[in-house]
C-alpha cells in the first residue's frame, strides 16, 4: 500500500473550514454521499461531487468516538492510498482524509475518513461544501467506526 501525502488536497479543501472547530457530532447520509459535522459554532455539510462517468462513496470512517468527538481539529491531511480491484467500473481508487485533534490542549489522536471512486480511470470525486440540501436526505449519526 502506498500513500501519497496531501494528494489532491486542493480538490477537497472545502473540509479545511473545520480546522479550529470543536466537533460534537458527525452524521453520514444513508447513501454514503454526504457528511455533516456539528460543531460548537454550527453545522457543516459536505458532499462527494462525482465527475461524469464516475461514482464516489464514503467507505469507512474510524476514530470518530475516541479521537474526534469533543476535539478541536488542528490539522487535516489528504492522501491517495492506492488503486484497487474494480468494484463497479473499470478502475477504483481509495482516498483518505486524516483529522488530527486535541481536547483541552491535549492531543487526542486521529480520525480517518476513507472514500472511494469507481470510474474508467480518467475521472474522480471531490469533497465539496453542500449548500442545497434536500429535506428528504436521511442522516445517520456516526458514533463508532463504520
Please provide a written account of the structure.
This protein is mainly beta. It has one domain. It is 3% helix and 55% strand. It is built from one helix and ten strands. The strands form two sheets. Strands 1-6-7-8-5 form a five-stranded antiparallel sheet. Strands 9-4-3-2-10 form a five-stranded antiparallel sheet, with no helix packed on it. The longest helix is centred in the middle third of the chain and has 5 residues, at 64-68. The two termini are 21 Å apart. The relative contact order is 0.28.
Features:
disordered N terminus, 1 helix, mainly beta, 146 residues, 10 strands, five-stranded antiparallel sheet, globular
Amino acid at each position: 500500500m502506498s500513500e501519497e501525502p496531501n494528494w489532491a488536497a486542493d480538490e477537497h479543501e472545502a473540509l479545511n473550514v473545520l480546522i479550529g472547530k470543536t466537533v460534537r457530532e458527525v452524521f453520514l447520509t444513508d447513501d454514503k454521499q454526504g457528511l455533516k459535522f456539528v460543531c460548537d459554532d454550527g453545522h457543516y455539510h459536505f458532499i462527494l461531487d462525482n465527475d461524469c462517468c464516475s461514482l464516489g462513496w464514503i467507505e469507512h470512517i474510524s476514530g470518530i468516538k475516541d479521537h474526534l468527538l469533543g476535539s478541536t481539529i488542528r490539522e487535516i491531511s489528504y492522501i491517495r492510498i492506492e488503486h484497487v480491484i474494480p468494484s463497479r467500473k473499470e478502475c477504483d481508487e481509495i482516498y483518505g482524509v486524516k483529522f488530527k485533534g486535541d481536547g483541552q490542549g491535549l492531543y487526542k489522536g486521529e480520525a480517518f475518513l476513507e472514500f472511494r471512486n469507481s470510474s474508467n480511470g480518467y475521472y474522480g470525486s471531490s469533497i465539496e461544501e453542500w449548500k442545497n440540501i434536500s429535506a428528504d436526505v436521511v442522516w445517520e449519526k456516526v458514533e463508532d467506526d463504520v
